[in-house]
């Protein structure tokens, strides 16, 4: 594909004549196993509509995937089951199109920078952008663009970010609830809420608890603030605010499962926990070992409270203690 003559400020040009908001479907040919992609456009398909109207041909072997097609002559299937129009074949095609069109996350999208057609998860969320509400650049290209727009963070900046996470977690140490993992798995159906992946409660290394409302904004881990995610999904979310990671429908379902405040989950901008007992957290945080670096702790604490606008809510005694009086 030809690239634009004029470069943007990053020096990384976008591709011309590319409908970056269009949805695509990705499917594996049932005959030869080739991964194919087909453009769907700006209107997502309902599974029943896809079954009735779609005929997707493989780019390699030409096999047509549609409700009127016979299935390949699979050795482990009886011939009558693969015949066109048979009940098993029809049920197969119903499932085939449901898999590829049932949810927005079933679809694929084309990156307007590298040109690859990639799965839904390869793009970060951007509300209101096309039927999939995903950014135009894939996450790989977005990382490269950000590296140019935002100079690489210094060692000090990375340490500051890590410090905020650590301080937040320590402040909340006495606020977190003990989690009943069996109850958690029951409420989420034993599946990763984001991907639907089946999880094993005994394989602890494969799943994690998501702070739905992040600890960096001083929300403790509670039953109403815990979501079951695969390890990979939770690492993708990191400390993102819920509306920046979950879709609108996922936020609604999450509120139903957990009893969380949907208006808070759906907020476009992060909100500091208004119910946090800042003074109690400060008292806990300042209980340091004799060998600990007290000066460092006080500075980290002040920086976090100032950045979250919480210093004004301190008691007079704690303000004096931290040098805010």
Helix count?
12
Distance between the termini: 63 Å
Biggest sheet record: 4 strands, antiparallel
Q: Tell me the strand percentage band.
A: 5-15%
User: What is the N-to-C succession of helices and strands?
Assistant: EEHEEHHEEHHHEEHHHHHH
Task: Find the count of extended strands (DSSP E, 2+ residues).
Answer: 8
Helix content: 25-40%
Radius of gyration, in angstroms, nearest whole number: 25 Å
- Class derived from helix and strand content: alpha+beta
Number of separate domains: 3
The overall pLDDT, averaged over residues, is 85
In spatial order, strands of the major sheet run: 2-1-5-6
Shape label: elongated
- Give unreliable regions as ranges: 1-7, 155-160
Folded structure, characterized:
By secondary structure, the chain is an alpha+beta fold. The protein folds into three domains: 23-146, no CATH class; 154-175 and 276-325, no CATH class; 176-265, no CATH class. Helix content is 34%, strand content 10%. The chain contains twelve helices and eight strands. It has helices spanning 47-53, 79-82, 87-101, 139-149, 155-171, 181-187, 231-237, 248-258, 262-265, 278-285, 294-307, 316-321; strands spanning 23-28, 35-41, 56-57, 64-65, 108-110, 117-119, 207-211, 226-230. The chain has a four-stranded antiparallel sheet, with no helix packed on it. The longest helix has 17 residues, at 155-171. Residues 1-7 and 155-160 have low confidence and may be disordered.
């Amino acid at each position: 594909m030809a690239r634009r003559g004029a470069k943007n400020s990053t020096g990384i040009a976008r591709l011309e004549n590319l409908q970056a908001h269009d949805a695509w479907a990705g499917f594996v040919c049932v005959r030869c196993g080739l991964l194919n992609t087909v453009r769907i456009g700006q209107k997502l398909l309902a599974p029943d509509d896809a079954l009735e109207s779609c005929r997707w041909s493989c780019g390699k072997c030409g096999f047509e995937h549609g409700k009127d097609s016979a299935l390949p002559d699979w050795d482990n299937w009886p011939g009558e089951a693969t015949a066109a129009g048979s009940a098993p074949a029809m049920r197969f095609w119903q499932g085939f199109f449901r898999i590829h069109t049932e949810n927005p996350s079933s679809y694929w999208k084309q990156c307007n920078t590298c040109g690859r057609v990639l799965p839904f998860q390869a793009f970060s969320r951007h509300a209101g952008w096309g039927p999939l509400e995903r950014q135009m650049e894939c996450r790989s290209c977005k990382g490269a663009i950000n590296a140019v727009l935002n100079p690489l963070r210094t060692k000090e900046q990375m340490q500051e970010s890590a410090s905020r996470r650590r301080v937040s977690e320590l402040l909340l140490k006495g606020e977190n609830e003990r989690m009943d993992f069996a109850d958690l798995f029951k409420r989420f159906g034993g599946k990763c809420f984001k991907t639907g992946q089946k999880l094993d409660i005994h394989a602890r290394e494969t799943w994690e608890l998501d702070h739905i409302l992040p600890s960096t904004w001083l929300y403790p881990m509670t039953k109403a603030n815990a979501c079951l995610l695969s390890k990979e999904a939770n690492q993708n979310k990191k400390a993102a605010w819920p509306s920046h990671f979950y879709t609108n429908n996922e936020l609604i379902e999450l509120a139903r499962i957990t009893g969380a405040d949907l208006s808070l989950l759906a907020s476009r901008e992060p909100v500091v926990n208004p119910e946090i007992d800042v003074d109690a957290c400060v008292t806990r945080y300042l209980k340091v070992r004799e060998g600990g670096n007290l000066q460092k702790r006080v500075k980290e604490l002040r920086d976090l409270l100032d950045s979250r606008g919480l210093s004004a809510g301190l008691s007079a005694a704690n303000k004096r203690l931290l040098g805010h009086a």
